[in-house]
Predict the 3D structure of the following.
Amino acid sequence: MKTRSFVSCSTVLLTLVLASCGGSKTASTTTAESTTTVAPTTVAPETTVAPTTVAPETTAAPTTAAPTVSTIADIPEAHAEIVAVWEKFFDNKTAAEERIPLLENADKLTETITQAVASPMLKQVTATVSAVAFESETRALVTFNVLLNGAAAMTGSQGVAVLVDGKWLVSQESFCTLVAFGGITIGCE
């Protein structure tokens, strides 16, 4: 009796579902035996719809972080300043005293800069910037190529520029990482 009651309930339920979709009682009576086939079809769209609703919220979160970067007063000007600072600082023709104002925490790294400029290997090194990506109003990721006597030695290297007192500078971390290749670590410990 319970089996018959389940079939009757299934038939009524299927009739209601089909009627709401434009089906007829005849169609539901014919398909009552395939109730198990119809049930997964009905559930699947509900399961599919839920992730679709959640996805835009997930993709919207990173978009909210972008306006911070766009609040930089003049991105093209900041980009040009970073390129100029990096290329001047890492130009082997730039004197040590000209490099000091281009480096974060230079007052603590004066001896390191002097050693780097005097290093026979580092005297052959220059850098050219290929890209600048602003991570915040005070920090930018700099992609650059290290040239040794004008030939590419390390391409696609990355470092950081920081905004200090309204001026973009080579970060201490980036400088110390690069001079370590020349065996200079004083002041960078």
In short: The CA atoms of residues 9 and 141 lie 65 Å apart. The beta strands are 125-134, 139-148, 151-164, 167-170. The two ends are 84 Å apart (CA to CA).
